[in-house]
Amino acid sequence: MFFAIVQLVLELLVLYGKAFFMILEGIFRLIFPVSEKSVKDEVVLITGAGHGIGRELALQFAKKQAILVLWDINENEIQNVAEEVRKLGGVAHIYKCDVSDLHQVESIAARIQQEVGDVSILFNNAGVVNLKPFNELEPAEIQRTLSVNTLAHFWTLRQFLPRMIELGRGHVVAMSSVCGILGGPYTTDYSASKHAVIGLMKALEEELHFIGKGDIIHFTAICPTIVDTGFVHHPHTRFPEILPILHPKKVAREAVNAVLTNKRIAVVPSWLGYLIPIFRLFPDKVFIMFQRFLDQAANPNDSLRAKVH
Ligand SMILES: NC(=O)c1ccc[n+]([C@@H]2O[C@H](COP(=O)([O-])OP(=O)(O)OC[C@H]3O[C@@H](n4cnc5c(N)ncnc54)[C@H](O)[C@@H]3O)[C@@H](O)[C@H]2O)c1
């Protein structure tokens, strides 16, 4: 009993020591950021690459000389993006794919393995939103949100993660949202779907750590506030100078940086990412008060893209 207590105390001391150094490292990294890894000639698959943030991600990864695999349900739009990538001197392979359809994901993943090779970065970006009061949401709309925004991540991961583990390298990125950390009005289905993918990233990382493969695959969740892509048509923000509606280029730049520096969670804008954990130290009520104070939100029935697709 005595030795067990001594052992526990020693282990706790080691744990506290490590935690202390991690905090110091975090502060050091604020001043001297981690150097970026190269994605030159790496195969980067981006879903929902035909428009908005996905399009910008494709262009920015192209500038880093990655080989792009672009998926979207809208074939014309990914064709246009592929043209833009080629104009930058990049390589893009396009595949029309509805990520919510398990069978399409399976058959297109098999084609990619043959036609392009191993995917080393999987960026699950495709997403939809309804922006409806909870009582007005139809079951089919809820199912669609969860299928595209959450289940699709499982379908693509089932195809590409085993090979990453086999090769001993890879990076999985989930496009979440601040709605994956906070809740907002008219986003019940959307918030649930975005919380879920953060949970998926965290649990997968722990599972790989548990089986001794913790350091080979990186997991990242991107959590932007509202972005000007038409996804939310007329958003409002109380302090546009402090918390503006973001440009997709900025979000893609921060997302690409998060991948290149192996960040776990990247909130965009990044200053909000530093504030959220600080407010988490206070009771929940304080956190919610802070969120309501900033007051950035969507209006009901206000998604252009929901009407397009
Ligand atoms: N715009 C925002 O305010 C905002 C904020 C936070 C997070 N996000 C997230 O960022 C991601 C991209 O959003 P965006 O603003 O660029 O939206 P967008 O509508 O401009 O682009 C989304 C793309 O995904 C494609 N897509 C939709 N359903 C698909 C499916 N089933 N299969 C394949 N492709 C499909 C669309 O055709 C479109 O090209 C989404 O996951 C969204 O939830 C957006």
UniProtKB/TrEMBL annotation:
The answer to keyword Zinc-finger applying to this record is: no
Q: Per the record's keyword annotation, is Transmembrane helix included, yes or no?
A: yes
Q: Where is the Ketoreductase domain?
A: 42-229
InterPro entries associated with the record:
KR_dom (IPR057326), NAD(P)-bd_dom_sf (IPR036291), SDR_fam (IPR002347)
Q: Which Pfam families match?
A: adh_short
Please list every transmembrane segment annotated in the UniProt record, as residue ranges.
12-32
> What keywords tag this UniProt record?
Membrane, Oxidoreductase, Transmembrane, Transmembrane helix
PANTHER family linked to this entry: PKSB, RETINOL DEHYDROGENASE 10
Q: What protein family is recorded?
A: Belongs to the short-chain dehydrogenases/reductases (SDR) family.
Its protein name is 17-beta-hydroxysteroid dehydrogenase 13-like
Which species is this record about?
Limulus polyphemus
What gene name is listed for this protein? LOC106458783
